[in-house]
Specification:
161 residues; alpha+beta; 8-stranded antiparallel β-sheet; 4 helices
Length: 161
C-alpha cells in the first residue's frame, strides 16, 4: 500500500478497501499521452477480482481510439474511484468539508485477446454493474469490443467523515 500524509484518514484494512471498491460505480483511468504531453483521463464501468491481496480490474470499450492507442504505447496507468460523497456545510467558507471514501493507485493495463478470459472479464463487469451474472456473450459481440485488464501494483484508500 502507498503511504499517505493524512494517516488519520488512511484505510489500511484490506477487507474494508475491497468493500469500498465494491460500492464504487466508476473507475477513472489516467494515461500519459507522450505525444500530446498531457494526461488523458477516461471514466469507465468496471468489474474486478481479488486473489489474496491482488486486485485486478476489467473494462470494456471499442477496438480503436485514443484509449486503445495509449494502452499499446504506455500501459502504465493511474486510477481513481470514489463513493459515499456528502457535502458537510459550515457557517464560513473554510468550515465546509466533504465526506467521502476514495481509492487511488497505479498498475499495468493490457488488452485481453483470449476469448474465455474476455468472457470472464465481461462477466465480472456485468456482475458489478448489474448485480447479476450468467450473461450470454455472442461471438460477434466479443469480436466487436475490446476487454482490458488492469493489474494493480499499488493503491491507497482514504476516507473522511
Amino acid at each position: 500500500m502507498r503511504p499517505m500524509r493524512r494517516k488519520d484518514r488512511q484505510v489500511t484494512d484490506f477487507n474494508k478497501i475491497i468493500d469500498i471498491i465494491g460500492r464504487c460505480d466508476c473507475c477513472r483511468l489516467g494515461f500519459w499521452d507522450e505525444e500530446a504531453k498531457q494526461v488523458y483521463i477516461v471514466p469507465l464501468n468496471f468489474g474486478y477480482t481479488v486473489e489474496g491481496e491482488k486486485v485486478t480490474f476489467y473494462f470494456h470499450g471499442a477496438h480503436e481510439g485514443r484509449k486503445i492507442d495509449l494502452i499499446k504505447k504506455a500501459p502504465s496507468v493511474g486510477f481513481e474511484m470514489d463513493t459515499n460523497y456528502k457535502l458537510n456545510e459550515g457557517d464560513e467558507a473554510c468550515e465546509y468539508s466533504a465526506r467521502f471514501q476514495s481509492i487511488i493507485g497505479n498498475g499495468v493495463i493490457s488488452l485481453i485477446e483470449d476469448v474465455e478470459e474476455k468472457k470472464q472479464g465481461l462477466e465480472l463487469l456485468m456482475k458489478h454493474v448489474s448485480g447479476r451474472d450468467g450473461w450470454e456473450y455472442p461471438e460477434q459481440m466479443l469480436k466487436n469490443m475490446s476487454v482490458m485488464k488492469l493489474e494493480v501494483e499499488e493503491l491507497a484508500c482514504k476516507e473522511h467523515e
